[in-house]
Write a sequence for this structure.
């Protein structure tokens, strides 16, 4: 049986919120079977915890933000991407601020946190969402799409007319049957232009942003010491974001995701469109590991 996963122990981290600049304490705790990924604001006594789901993503202007009864938890996509990459199904996430800590701007620190806690299998089958029909969302020249596929594949194209963005490095196709999430995706950092950071700060945002947690670009080049971690780090980070946004579904997808100039809003709208028609998908489990699509065979082992 291909089983659900949770943490072996509780783990904590402290960081800074990208937009608020506030100190944030994050606590990840083990959770029981079928609990899902549940967020709790510990700085708001009496506020109800809430389980991730596309309908709760009610702010996508700069990140994916969950909103329930005026309680917000923002910038969850990097953490959710790490959970997806490690195959975690059930986690209690506690945070004492309105957004996740940005860490280094990638999912790698969250991978390290989970590896520190350890992972255990649980006595229930993992539930997948298998896409049965093509589902597409368009907005002008931008689009995102899910297609039936016996595995999990992500293909994205970005389009920036800027000297720092090589044309050959703005498209990527990752098939997780042959590619490892931790080594090839998790370390890709978020990015932005220096004039955007300056504008956001004037409007009370990006107060925690720096070259320690983002790739910063001026009119001509990348300003960070050491440059890029991958030649195509920009589009790889968009893949990281998409994986996190899609995992807000609460279950791993068996599908091929593709997009052109996609973002958090379109990724969320795609999930809502998928769920709007039950003919688009089905829930499946695998009693025999040999029947699991190859994309999921190489989830990190439980010894991490």
């Amino acid at each position: 049986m291909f089983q659900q996963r949770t943490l072996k122990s509780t783990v904590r981290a402290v960081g800074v919120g990208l937009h608020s600049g506030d100190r944030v304490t994050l606590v990840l705790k083990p959770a029981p079977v079928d609990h899902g990924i549940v967020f709790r604001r510990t700085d708001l006594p009496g506020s109800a915890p809430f389980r991730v789901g596309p309908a709760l993503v009610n702010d996508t202007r700069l990140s994916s933000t969950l909103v329930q009864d005026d309680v917000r938890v923002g910038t969850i996509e990097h953490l959710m991407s790490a959970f997806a990459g490690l195959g975690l199904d059930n986690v209690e996430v506690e945070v004492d601020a309105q957004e996740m800590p940005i860490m280094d701007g990638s999912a790698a620190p969250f991978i390290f946190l989970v590896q520190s806690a350890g992972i255990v299998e649980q006595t229930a089958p993992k539930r997948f969402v298998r896409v049965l029909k093509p589902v597409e969302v368009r907005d002008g020249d931008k689009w995102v799409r899910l297609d039936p596929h016996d595995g999990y594949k992500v293909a994205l194209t970005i389009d920036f007319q800027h000297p720092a963005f090589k044309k050959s490095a703005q498209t990527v196709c990752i098939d997780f049957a042959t590619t490892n999430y931790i080594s090839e995706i998790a370390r890709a950092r978020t990015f932005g232009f220096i004039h955007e950071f300056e504008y956001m700060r004037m409007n009370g945002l990006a107060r925690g942003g720096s070259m320690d947690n983002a790739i910063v670009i001026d009119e001509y080049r990348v300003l960070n010491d050491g440059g890029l971690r991958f030649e195509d780090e920009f589009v790889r980070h968009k893949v990281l974001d998409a994986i996190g946004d899609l995992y807000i579904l609460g279950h791993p997808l068996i599908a091929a995701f593709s997009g052109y100039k996609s973002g958090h809003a379109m990724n969320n709208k795609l999930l809502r469109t998928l769920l709007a028609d039950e003919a688009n998908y089905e829930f499946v489990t695998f009693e025999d590991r040999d029947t699991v699509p190859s994309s999921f065979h190489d989830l990190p082992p439980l010894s991490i």
